[in-house]
Amino acid sequence: MPYAKRLGASLLVIMILNGLIGLKPAGIALAAAPTATIEVDDELLTIGESTLVTITFSEAVTGFTIADLTEENGTLSGLRTDDNTTFTATFTPTDGIEDTDNVISLDNTGVKDNATGTAGSGSTVSNNYAIDTKQPTANSIAVSDALLAAGETAFVTFTFSEAVKDFANDDLTIPNGTLSAVSSSDGGVSWTATFTPKENIRASTNSITLDKSGLTDLAGNPGTGSMSSGNFAINTVRPTATIEVADTSLSIGETSLVTIAFSESVGFGNDDLTVPNGTLSMVSSSDGGVTWTATFTPAADVEDPTNVIELDNSRVTSFTGLREQALPCPIIMRSIRSGRRRPSQSRTLR
């Protein structure tokens, strides 16, 4: 047989065989592997929430269990079906998680077609869901001044673990003063306000307390518990003083003890005093600055029934930083009657 005929016969045999391989008995369908879709109902889960998960197969299946599923940042429970085609389960997120990218995956190889036993292949992935089950917390409450005196204010800064909303002054307990309205300039992470102490208060123990249950993060998670600032002291009681002159009628050669008694320890000096018709020795204190004494010596050749030693209140500073108000305060002034003028002598000329 010529070569061309032999080649043509061979090709014909191959075509016939290929045709036979492609034939299938009439009325019999080749089995296909089952496929699936996974739908997570709630795509943003917060504290206390759970969501329905629906797994739908292309046909009734067997061998499918919850172990064939892999869930991120949570747990699946309650897998059930009425027809072996559509299955449902409940997904509960893990506490303390903040993650925007999560999916549930199905290993199809563990699932078989219920009619033919054909196993699935590959994997199926659900739609994405986000989780925010972190409670907002307050990292710090900082008061800028640990010792507040009259006329002073302090800057208060509240710093949270994340942006929060619904935070207001009603969530705060403010001792011995007032706080301006809290506000934020960075989207709700840091909040600031100004604290003004009350007048005439002396309190060594103070702190600002936050009730976190009144605020939420941007996902709606509520805070819990409370937090307090560090301690700060308040002393807005201004010092007062009395001045006592021991001898109110001074004559030649006499001096008098002068006692300046304050309501608390202060720092002051002779420059704070106005002394008429005489001089005052350097003031000094032996009790830590509460009581000060000095000696008044009248000037010579003076006769004046009305004299007072005056204290400039505004120059006196307490050890807590307070100054006396430049207003009338209870200072007792004692008159000093000086009689040191010598009698004039007449001389007789001869």
From TrEMBL:
Describe the location of the Bacterial Ig-like domain by residue ranges: 32-131, 132-234, 236-321
Q: Which Pfam families match?
A: Big_12
Q: What is this protein called?
A: Bacterial Ig-like domain-containing protein
Organism this protein belongs to? Cohnella xylanilytica
Q: What broad taxonomic lineage does this protein's source fall under?
A: Bacteria, Bacillati, Bacillota, Bacilli, Bacillales
